[in-house]
């Protein structure tokens, strides 16, 4: 679980959120800010962990994915599973991020580099659906669960555009499969 205090205001106008204000863990397209978020997450895990899983929504999906790759490459303990809602960004290459540049890890170039069991849940009408799909592509398909609901940039449930019983049930099934795979 990411437990942190987001500090940067996020522009939600492209999501049709009206005057709603959101926050982010780092400034978009700002490598020092993204690296600081990665280091903070890593430090938090080391001091407060271990944790069984990580749950992320929107921009934090890319941060969590970058962190998973960072830990895996260094053969450091991580989490047993990840649940990702409405991914707005794929993971960055953590080694290049340490050099001050933000370089995404596209699945067609790096393959399935995250071995942790994962669930990917996003809406077919999400303006970030391509990013969510790209991120899911770098996760091991043998331990990856996906559910694409009919909604937008949201977590399915009460009050969302994808609140029907079937949508919520199928989202929960993807998460249950991921948890089950993490205990095998």
UniProtKB/TrEMBL annotation:
This protein's record includes keyword Hydrolase: yes
Gene3D superfamilies named in the record: alpha/beta hydrolase
Record-level GO cellular component terms: cytoplasm; nucleus
Gene Ontology MF, one: hydrolase activity
Domain of life: Eukaryota
Keyword Hydrolase included in the entry's annotation: yes
Alphabetical UniProt keywords: Hydrolase
One Pfam assignment: FSH1
BP term (GO), one: secondary metabolic process
Classification via InterPro entries: AB_hydrolase_fold, FSH-like_dom, LovG
Domain Serine hydrolase, chain residue ranges per copy: 28-158
Protein name in the entry: Serine hydrolase domain-containing protein
């Amino acid at each position: 679980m990411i437990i942190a205090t987001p500090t940067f205001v996020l522009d939600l106008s492209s999501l049709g959120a009206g005057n709603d204000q959101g926050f982010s863990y780092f400034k978009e397209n700002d490598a020092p800010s993204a690296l600081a978020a990665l280091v903070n997450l890593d430090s938090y895990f080391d001091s407060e962990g271990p944790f069984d899983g990580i749950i992320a929504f929107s921009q934090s999906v890319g941060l969590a994915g970058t962190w998973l790759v960072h830990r895996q490459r260094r053969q450091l303990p991580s989490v047993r599973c990840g649940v990702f809602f409405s991914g707005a960004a794929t993971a960055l290459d953590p080694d290049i991020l340490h050099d001050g540049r933000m370089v995404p890890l596209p699945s067609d170039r790096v393959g399935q580099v995250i071995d942790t069991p994962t669930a990917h849940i996003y809406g077919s009408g999400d303006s970030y659906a391509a990013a969510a799909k790209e991120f899911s592509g770098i996760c091991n398909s043998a331990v990856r669960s996906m559910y694409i609901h009919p909604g937008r940039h949201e977590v399915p449930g009460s009050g969302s555009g994808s609140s029907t019983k079937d949508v919520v049930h199928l989202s929960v099934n993807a998460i249950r499969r991921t948890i089950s795979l993490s205990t095998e």
